[in-house]
Design brief:
- This protein has 236 residues and is an alpha+beta fold.
- It has 2 domains: 2-94, Alpha-Beta Plaits (2-Layer Sandwich); 107-235, 2-Layer Sandwich (Alpha-Beta Plaits), CATH 3.30.70.
- Helices cover 20% and strands 31% of the residues.
- It contains 5 helices and 10 strands, in the order E-H-E-E-H-E-E-E-H-E-E-E-H-H-E.
- Strands 1, 2, 3, 4, 5, 6, 7, 8, 9 and 10 form a 10-stranded mixed beta sheet that branches.
- The longest helix is centred in the first third of the chain and has 11 residues, at 27-37.
- The model has no long low-confidence stretch (mean pLDDT 95).
């Protein structure tokens, strides 16, 4: 039986989501290890990778269960008891055998959380702090990313894709209490694309962002910090 697992995690102390040969300290590696302990040894497939220090409020994975695991309610309870507090299974549901967490996904949604002012130790791993931010400028310029663009200047090497073109369906900024949240929804994202878009919004003017989007000039930005980034939804 194939099941979809919806999970959330605090990625602060993990080396990203994907399994790595050199370390077991990853989100999927930790989940796979716990599953093996209860007799589930099939490969866990996630909707996509998140980098070191990046979080998720709604990541989706799929896994094929052996025939003796039929009680999904019990499985849900057992997994949350065995997993570290930094990883939480939100739901487990039966899906069609041809469902694929990565390839069946139509859209992915990310949020980037910023706070203006001095960093504090209680939020340091979860929010990106900046000294000052021109909110109105960011709110205006984020709309430049809407539509289909070639994001070859908004990616790090190592992106697993044959094309650097992506369609951004939604891109907007809003305030929530003392936080500024940047919202991005697309058919997919390249490696570090969102963090590079955020870096552009925080450091470049409108024309410079447009130049980089048009692949006319690469400003070689340093990606924004990982700790403010959250995978918040995967749409199928």
């Amino acid at each position: 039986m194939r099941c979809a697992l919806t999970i959330s995690y605090n990625g602060s102390h993990y080396l990203g989501s994907q399994i790595q040969k050199e370390s077991s300290n990853t989100i999927i590696g930790t989940l796979q290890h716990v599953l093996c302990k209860i007799g589930i040894d099939s490969k866990v497939i996630a909707s996509g990778r998140t980098d070191k220090g990046v979080h998720a409020s709604r990541q989706v994975c799929h896994v094929d269960l052996p025939i003796f695991w039929t009680d999904l309610f019990k499985l849900h309870r057992v997994l949350n008891k065995m997993l570290p507090a930094s990883i939480h299974i939100k739901s487990i549901s039966k899906v069609d055998d041809d469902f694929h967490a990565r390839y069946s996904a139509k859209r992915r949604v990310y949020r980037y959380v910023i706070k203006e002012g001095i960093c504090n130790p209680f939020e340091a791993d979860l929010v990106t702090f900046v000294d000052t931010i021109d909110y109105k400028r960011v709110q205006k310029n984020i709309q430049l990313f809407l539509g289909e663009h070639d994001f070859q200047y908004f990616m790090k090497t190592g992106s697993e894709s044959n094309s650097t073109k992506r369609i951004i369906y939604k891109a907007f900024a809003y305030k929530h209490k003392e936080y500024i949240v940047l919202h991005f929804e697309a058919n997919g994202f390249l490696r570090s694309q969102i963090r590079l878009m955020v870096a552009a919004l925080l450091t470049l003017d409108e024309q410079s962002i447009q130049n980089q989007l048009n692949c006319e000039k690469n400003y070689k930005l340093k990606p924004a910090d990982c700790n403010g980034l959250y995978l918040s939804n995967v749409k199928y």
